[in-house]
Amino acid sequence: MPYPLDAAAVRSWCGLALEALGRERERIDAINVYPVADGDTGTNLYLTLESAARAVEAAFDGHTSAGTAPCLADAIGAMAHGALIGARGNSGTIVAQLLRGMTEVLAATDGSADALRRALRRAAAATYEAVAHPVEGTVLTVATAAADAAERAADGAAGAAGVARAAHEGARTALQATPGQLAVLGRAGVVDAGGCGLVALLGALADALSGEVSATPVAVRADAPLPEAAGCEVADGGAADGCGDPEGPAFEVIYLLEAGDAAVARLRTRLDGLGDSLVVVGGDGLWNVHVHVDDAGAAVEAGIEAGRPYRVRITHFGGASRTKEPAMTARAVVAVVPGAGLAGLCAEAGATPVAVRPGEPPASGELVQAIRQAHAREVMLLPNDPDLRHTAAAAAEQARTEGVRVALIPTRSAVQGIAALAVHEPERSFDEDVVAMTAAAGATRYAELAVAERQSWTMAGVCQAGDVLGLIDGDVVVIGSDLLRTAMTVLDRMLSAGGEMVTLVLGAEAPDALAERLERHVRERHLAVDTVVYEGGQHAAPLLIGVE
Asked: Is 176 helix (H, G, I), strand (E, B) or coil?
């Protein structure tokens, strides 16, 4: 029997969509030839929906603890927000915008069949608005066909379920036509990978509302017949034959951005001049930015000028790696870092950064995806946070099942990660490199300067809101009222046990003269100790200190 489109249906939709994309992930990856043949569209869509599902579960948990039940607006809003902050790649970013478009309509309705029709139409329009240069034969075309089919669906007892099923069928039909609309798909003999993921997503919605599960996959070869099905399937022999543009931009840059509408409009113009595949989605001060460029630093700098970028992800395509089977390197480093500045530093050093901000730790799936994007047979994983030990271990174990040799370097701070990265040498044997990087991290004492948010007990006594806390190796040892003086005290304590090198990582809120004053203090009070300074950027702590 049909189910109403309510909060419970959205929750079910998330679960079914995640299951469907989990089943289809590898097959969608295999047909990914546009806009870049990097073989990760299915994985990106799965991770995007995983973030959406977590957000919906969090919304339900919050209402349960309060003794209330979420409404449709709560659930669909959480799904859209989760997809926005967790969007991966071009396809994931577009799907996040599609969900946001649906939310704009459904959040103010009772989930009727007519509301779902209007929501699907708004979703299709929103995807076109997000893409700088829309191309037909892609997920955009499939979304429009789904909306068209939904509008043609007859009213009846099936209600919203009937509309969802019609949208799914319309999307499936449109998907099979994509090879004739986009030349790169026609040459490879496959349908659009992003559109294939959208068909799976709409099939999950239809299943959630109807209670009937579609299990047979849709063939994705251009010459295959159209079966009754929900997902995607690669015909024998695979599909992606390196038909993407090998001369395109070298980097994919993605980040979340806190900025106003006017600043984002200027950002769109600037990024459009830097590269291609530009997609900017979001609103109400929070945006997800995706672009392919040759100058990754310029793309990040444009975000810094527009507002506050974080969760910066930079992926190097590089020549042969833009085909279905990326060229594997011998060894790579994946590092979790706070702030865009450190992400850029790691990328320049050849590492794959996973940039995060406080309170939003990466999931194991995000780390697995970063390991995959490194395209290496051997990977050094730097969690740079003691709280990520289990998450990183789970990611390493998953990557090992996929044939990647992964070493988890026990870094507990970004400064330990910098020290480990500094001694990394791919030419050494794997075991020797692990020992050297682990030793460098272990030889680096780490400290952090933070500002207390509330009154609390610490190992150094009671602190008040606004106090400056000096933490050494994770424990509060100094409580002060001034960032500079507290930092000097922390440095003196750390260097009293010896040291040859001090590393300072400045957050965006650090005073302009802080680094200069601390360098002078070290030079005057501690002879033969060198100091190096890095910009951590937004969402890094006010000051990180490392002593080697």
From this structure: helix
| Helices first, then strands: H and E counts in the chain | 18, 18
Question: How many whole angstroms separate alpha carbon 247 and alpha carbon 270?
Answer: 21
Closest of 280, 313, 322, 274 to residue 294, by C-alpha: 274
Confidence of residue 434 (pLDDT cuts 50, 70, 90): very high
Tell me the C-alpha distance between 47 and 152, whole Å.
32
pLDDT band at 175 (very low <50, low <70, confident <90, very high): very high
d(CA 194, CA 32): 8
- Whether 148 contacts 170, CB under 8 Å: yes
* CA 37/CA 321 separation, integer angstroms: 8
User: DSSP label at 154?
Assistant: P
Strands 376-382 and 352-356: unpaired
The helix (H) or strand (E) run that includes residue 258 is strand 251-258
Q: What is the CA radius of gyration of the chain?
A: 25
Q: Which helix (H) or strand (E) holds 84?
A: helix 72-86
Residue of higher predicted confidence among 243 and 93: 93
Per mean pLDDT, which range of 124-138, 275-289, 335-349 is the poorest?
A: 335-349
Q: Which two tokens stand for residue 40?
A: 């990760």
pTM (two decimals): 0.61
What span, in angstroms and rounded, lies between the C-alpha atoms of 76 and 400? Answer: 36
CA 420, CA 443: separation in Å to the nearest integer? 10
Q: How many residues does the chain have?
A: 548
Map tokens 């000097």 to a residue.
Answer: 488
**How does residue 222 score in pLDDT terms, banded at 50, 70 and 90?**
very low
